[in-house]
Write a structure and sequence with these properties.
Layout: H1 11-41, H2 43-53, H3 59-73, H4 78-92
Length: about 100
């Protein structure tokens, strides 16, 4: 008694993965567009979104992000700038090892 096994090419599975990635990418793109439009046309909404997306985040943390970006613009290596940022945030929260 002979039998024959036929395997699929796997193309159907790959196309499903591509579709999911495409949908996820579009969702992130629309979310970023939404955030940009809120920032441009509804300044009070920017604060509302900050509270919704980052509850408990201090104004210091947002100010430190500006410092981080300035350090990067000044040519400091990313790793060092990020480490400095984290140290300042932890110091502000009283969690630094001094």
């Amino acid at each position: 008694m002979a039998y024959r096994v036929e395997y699929g090419s796997g193309e159907a599975k790959r196309s499903e993965i591509r579709k999911k990635k495409r949908v996820g990418g579009k969702a992130w793109g629309f979310f970023l567009l939404f955030l940009l439009l809120v920032r441009l046309y509804w300044p009070a909404g920017t604060q509302v979104l900050r509270e919704l997306l980052l509850p408990g985040a201090s104004q210091t943390a947002f100010a430190e992000v500006q410092t981080l970006t300035q350090e990067l613009r000044d040519g400091e290596p990313f790793g060092q700038a990020l480490e400095d940022y984290c140290r300042r945030i932890l110091a502000e929260a009283g969690l630094a090892d001094a």
